[in-house]
Every structure is written in C-alpha cells, then in structure tokens.
From TrEMBL:
Record gene name: PNC1
SUPFAM superfamilies, per the entry: Heme-dependent peroxidases
Cofactor note (record): Binds 2 calcium ions per subunit. Binds 1 heme b (iron(II)-protoporphyrin IX) group per subunit.
Gene Ontology molecular function: any one: peroxidase activity
Protein's organism: Platanthera guangdongensis
Native organism taxonomy: Eukaryota, Viridiplantae, Streptophyta, Embryophyta, Tracheophyta
Family that this chain belongs to: Belongs to the peroxidase family. Classical plant (class III) peroxidase subfamily. Belongs to the peroxidase family. Ascorbate peroxidase subfamily.
Keywords associated with the record: Calcium, Disulfide bond, Heme, Hydrogen peroxide, Iron, Metal-binding, Oxidoreductase, Peroxidase, Secreted, Signal
Annotated catalysed reactions: 2 a phenolic donor + H2O2 = 2 a phenolic radical donor + 2 H2O
InterPro entries the record matches: Haem_peroxidase, Haem_peroxidase_sf, Peroxidase_pln, Peroxidases_AS, Peroxidases_heam-ligand_BS, Secretory_peroxidase
Protein known as: Peroxidase
Length: 319
C-alpha cells in the first residue's frame, strides 16, 4: 500500500520527535520497552535472589547507587576498577573496605547481557537494583527513569570530597546534598535509607565513647561489640529495632537518641531538621512517599545520555 505524502510527513515528524527524546538527555521509564523488554524483570529476579541469600545486600546495593550518584553523577563510575590511566573510586575513604555488592552487579550485568547485548547500562542497573532492594525489604516502590549511559572514567578525589562522612555535622550534610541539587528535606528523607544495613565499628566508635547525645544503655550495648581499640570491622545495625526491614524506625531511633552514626543523630539534635524527623515518626506513609520521590530526584543527578559515555559490557572496566 502506498504511503501518502501527508502520512509520510507525519511519520517523519514522529521519528524526529522520538530521536529528540532519546538523544536529548532526558531519562524515560520506558527507555528499554522495545530494545530490552526483559531488562527490568531480569534485574528484579537477580536482586530478589541476592537479598534472599543475604538481607544486608539490599542495603549494600542501595548504597552503591547513592555513592555512584554523588560522584560525577549517576554514571556507574563507582563500579570501575583501577587502570593504568586513572584510579577508580573503590579505594576512596568513604568506599574502601565499606561499599560492597560488586559481585551481585556483575551477576546482574551478565544476566542482562544474555537477554539483550550491550543495551542496558551499568548505571541503570544500579538505579533499578536500588529500587528493587528497597522493595525486597518491605519498602516503597517507584518508577525508575532510565537511559543513563556509563562513564569511561572515575574520580577518586571527588569520591573523597563529595560523599558525606558519617562524622559530618548538620550544616556539612546540608551543604553536601545542596551541591548535588538536593534540598535539606531530601537529605533527611534519603538518610532514612539507614533503616537498613550495618556500619563498621571504626565509623561510630568516637560517637559511642565520647558523645553525650546518645542513650547510655544503647552506647553500652554497642561497646560490647566495638572496643575502644581493635575490632574496626565489627558490624552493628544502623537501625537497632528492625535492621532488615525498610520502615520508619530509623527516625524513631533518632528521637530516643539511638542514632548509630554521628551524622544520623545530627538530624535530631535540636536543629532545623527535628520537625521533619518528628513528622516521619508519626507518618510512615509520608516517609515512604517522600523517599520514593527523593530517590527519583537523586537518580537525575548529571546522567550521561544520548551519545555521551558508553554501554559497558563489563561494569568493572571500559569497553
């Protein structure tokens, strides 16, 4: 059947619009709908399997996405190993002997490559895996915008300077998030990710031995697993109440001075963020909704799109 000139014009316009959306730097929830329709289900199944095997892995995958987005944007740079031309981010202070889950991401990438060759970026896998991890531990879901591409380099210096420290005061936390386009409210909300996961003794030792805004019985219980010297890698849950369930107990803990990290307790220490913490203790549904929205916003930090970057075949190295 012949195509009329008017129909041809409409078709050309539709193609131009499609090309504009794909190459304009905009992310879209339906990015892989045609190119890799099994991508999301493949990632979800792999995450569910990993979290089922080890509950802590859910928090680790969520943290990988966070540490990725805060350095060069959400571009998969955190996954790169060191090379002869650059030092990766894995040995940065906030990451060394701390971030984990790289083997799970490798496994997910291998499975995704099996269903669609060089189509789904490692950066997008991190974003989807973070969402699926939260869901697997009973938390909210959200629609992940897709279409990120992978960086070809990493930044050790930016990882050291831009990822907030567990010893940060409130003003430092506010500034670190603001630098990434995230509000103080976003910061308090995203900190709720600490309702799951564990931390090493070395990052909370000073708090439990020297700080006064901590429940004394809670501090004493922590000291049994975190001596004043040694035991640096001994772990304690960030949420003492429900450490493997994504809920609002992180905020309930802060109100009773049971924040594990100095940076956690800073959110409820007589400052400007007390009100939001109190709101989340009373309204877990609001926390869930806000967390979902804040994760989408964080996922929008400086993505590589269109012809920028590449789709890595191996998340640990460039093509």
């Amino acid at each position: 059947m012949a195509i009329s000139s008017s129909s041809s014009s409409v078709l050309k316009i539709m193609l131009l619009l499609f090309s504009a959306v794909v190459g304009s730097g905009q992310l879209s929830p339906t990015y892989y709908a045609r190119s890799c329709p099994k991508a999301l289900s493949t990632i979800r199944a792999a995450v569910q399997s990993a979290v089922s095997s080890e509950k802590r892995m859910g928090a680790s995958l969520l943290r990988l996405h966070f540490h990725d987005c805060f350095v060069q944007g959400c571009d998969g740079s955190v996954l790169l190993d060191d090379t002869s031309t650059f030092t990766g981010e894995k040995t940065a202070g906030p990451n060394q002997n701390s971030i984990r889950g790289f083997d799970v991401i490798d496994n997910i990438k291998k499975q995704v490559e099996a269903v669609c060759k060089q189509t789904v970026s490692c950066a997008d896998i991190l974003a989807v895996a973070a969402r699926d991890s939260v869901v697997a531990l009973g938390g909210p879901t959200w629609t992940v915008k897709l279409g990120r591409r992978d960086s070809t380099t990493a930044s050790l210096s930016q990882a050291n300077s831009d990822i907030p420290s567990p010893t940060s005061d409130l003003n430092v936390l506010i500034s670190a998030f603001s630098k990434k386009g995230l509000s103080t409210s976003d910061m308090v909300t995203l900190s709720g990710g600490h309702t799951i996961g564990q931390a090493r003794c070395t990052v909370f030792r000073t708090r439990i031995y020297n700080e006064t805004n901590i429940d004394s019985a809670y501090a004493a219980s922590l000291k049994s697993n975190c001596p004043s010297t040694g035991g640096d890698n001994n772990l304690s849950p960030l949420d003492v109440q429900t450490p493997v369930t994504f809920d609002n107990n992180y905020y309930n803990n802060l109100v009773i001075k049971k924040g594990l990290l100095h940076s956690d307790q800073q959110l409820y220490n007589g400052g400007s963020t007390n009100t939001q913490v109190n709101t989340y203790t009373r309204n877990p549904a609001k926390f869930s909704n806000d967390f979902a929205a804040a994760m989408v916003k964080m996922g929008d930090i400086s993505p590589l799109t269109g012809t920028q970057g590449q789709i890595r075949l191996n998340c640990r190295k460039t093509n």
